[in-house]
């Protein structure tokens, strides 16, 4: 990376995005509760690891490959499930996420790019979220880059009533708490009493709180940093299969954490493809999960990489000529 950019022009004059900044800071501070030994449990740890993958796919498969690039199709209810998983990851509404990412592809590592590391690593990773971007936060930006989503009443309602997403986000807290309680009551571990409560109820409350802290709060923070690393690390460190006119790289570490998104140079070469695996060893687990959905009849019209699209087109032309 040999260039330095100023921040995007719509950010000037600087205006702190208090909602985003306070939320990001507050959730990180709450995640520090994992340091409290009393709130640790192996069940919550396993739930955290599973949740990072499941809810992370709301971003990777849902927000990114399905809604932004339309690289495959699903029934509406499946699309909604992915969208809600994405909302629960607290990365903004689907239309706003799509707007930012499509703008990123149009102006990747140019000054209008919302989160280029050419400004700084900190800016690309999280700093860009701290200040109001008058393009990505405008109705004009949504209409330009996410008009297809706004035609859908579900996504339009999320923009018309932004607080609606918090029904999903905050609903995770009681869901995880009662899941932990039920799990504890089912197995009835022998643990010390608390606040004068019976050992059974005490352990149930403890596991419920553990699930909230590990399964919901820490998981949200983990998914945030995995997503942000695609913006930062995958435009700074790694190798390139293609000269794409910007700084995207293939970063194996980010690919491992994000189950495929780190093969970012491949993605910038061919954004329409449902897969980012261009070499046999560039494993893209997210793509194979999309193929599994196809096997179940829940995904169709999966877009292959450009070379395969050309081969399919040439074979179709040859068949038509013979006919």
What does it look like?
The protein is mainly α and 323 residues long. It has one domain. It is 60% helix and 0% strand. The chain is built from 14 helices and no strands. Helix 2 crosses helix 3, helix 4 packs across helix 6 and helix 5 packs across helix 10. It is globular. The N and C termini lie far apart (52 Å). The model has no long low-confidence stretch (mean pLDDT 92).
Question: How does the helix and strand content classify structurally?
Answer: mainly alpha
Number of strands: 0
Average residue-wise pLDDT: 92
Residue fraction in strands? under 5%
Q: What is the number of independent domains?
A: 1
Shape, please? globular
- Number of helices, counting only DSSP H or I runs of 4 residues or more: 14
Descriptors for this entry?
323 residues; mainly alpha; 60% helix; 0% strand
Question: What can be said about this structure in brief?
Answer:
The chain is mainly α. It contains 14 helices and no strands.
What's the arrangement of secondary structure elements?
Blueprint: H1 18-31, H2 42-68, H3 76-88, H4 94-106, H5 121-130, H6 139-145, H7 147-150, H8 153-160, H9 165-187, H10 199-232, H11 252-257, H12 264-269, H13 285-295, H14 306-322
Helix pairs in contact: 1-10, 2-3, 2-4, 2-10, 4-6, 5-10, 9-10
């Amino acid at each position: 990376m040999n260039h330095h950019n100023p921040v995007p022009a719509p950010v000037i004059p600087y205006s702190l995005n208090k909602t985003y900044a306070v939320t990001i800071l507050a959730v990180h501070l709450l995640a520090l509760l994992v340091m409290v030994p009393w709130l640790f449990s192996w069940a919550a740890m396993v739930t955290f690891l599973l949740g990072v993958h499941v809810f992370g796919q709301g971003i990777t498969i849902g927000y990114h490959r399905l809604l932004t690039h339309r690289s495959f199709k699903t029934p509406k209810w499946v699309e909604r499930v992915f969208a809600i998983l994405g909302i629960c990851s607290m990365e903004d509404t689907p239309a706003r996420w799509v707007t930012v990412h499509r703008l990123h592809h149009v102006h990747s590592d140019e000054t209008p790019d919302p989160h280029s590391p050419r400004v700084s690593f900190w800016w690309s990773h999280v700093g860009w979220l701290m200040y109001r971007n008058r393009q990505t936060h405008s109705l004009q930006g949504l209409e330009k880059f996410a008009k297809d989503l706004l035609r859908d009443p579900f996504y339009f309602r999320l923009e018309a009533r932004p607080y609606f997403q918090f029904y999903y986000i905050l609903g995770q807290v009681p869901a995880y708490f009662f899941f932990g309680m039920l799990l504890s009551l089912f197995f009835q571990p022998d643990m010390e009493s608390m606040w004068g409560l019976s050992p059974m109820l005490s352990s149930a409350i403890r596991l419920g709180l553990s699930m909230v802290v590990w399964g919901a709060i820490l998981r949200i923070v983990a998914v945030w940093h995995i997503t942000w690393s695609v913006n930062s690390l995958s435009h700074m460190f790694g190798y390139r299969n293609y000269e794409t006119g910007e700084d995207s790289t293939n970063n194996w570490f980010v690919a491992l954490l994000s189950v495929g998104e780190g093969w970012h140079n491949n993605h910038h070469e061919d954004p329409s493809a449902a897969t980012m695996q261009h070499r046999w060893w560039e494993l893209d687990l997210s793509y194979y999960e999309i193929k599994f959905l196809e096997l179940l009849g829940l995904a169709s019209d999966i877009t292959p990489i450009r070379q395969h699209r050309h081969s399919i087109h040439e074979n179709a032309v040859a068949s038509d000529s013979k006919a």
